[in-house]
Specification:
single chain; about 90 residues; mainly alpha; disordered C terminus
Length: about 90
């Protein structure tokens, strides 16, 4: 299926290629977002983690989405580590 001819059916190969591309894009976004804690001061990082944990308990979200919010909060907590220590600067 192309933007030029939306009425055409997508082949299985095209679908797999689209899924693979979306997985790569999502992985980049997840990595970029998880490094966000390094750009925030301690209070803002903790607030972000707290809000992600709240979203993980939001009953209006499906269980899978809640689980992903909890995982992201956990990953950010790990990356935040000791908030008084700054990450090394690139040379």
């Amino acid at each position: 299926m192309t933007a030029d001819k939306p009425q055409e059916a997508m082949t299985f190969g095209e679908l797999l290629e689209l899924i693979r591309d979306q997985q790569h894009r999502l992985q980049v976004l997840e990595n970029a977002f998880s490094y966000l804690t390094f750009c925030l001061d301690d209070k803002a990082g903790q607030l972000l983690i707290h809000n992600l944990k709240l979203e993980s308990q939001n009953q209006q979200r499906d269980e899978t989405t809640q689980h992903h919010f909890a995982q992201l909060a956990s990953e950010m907590e790990k990356r935040l580590g000791n908030p008084t220590v700054s990450p090394p600067l690139p040379e």
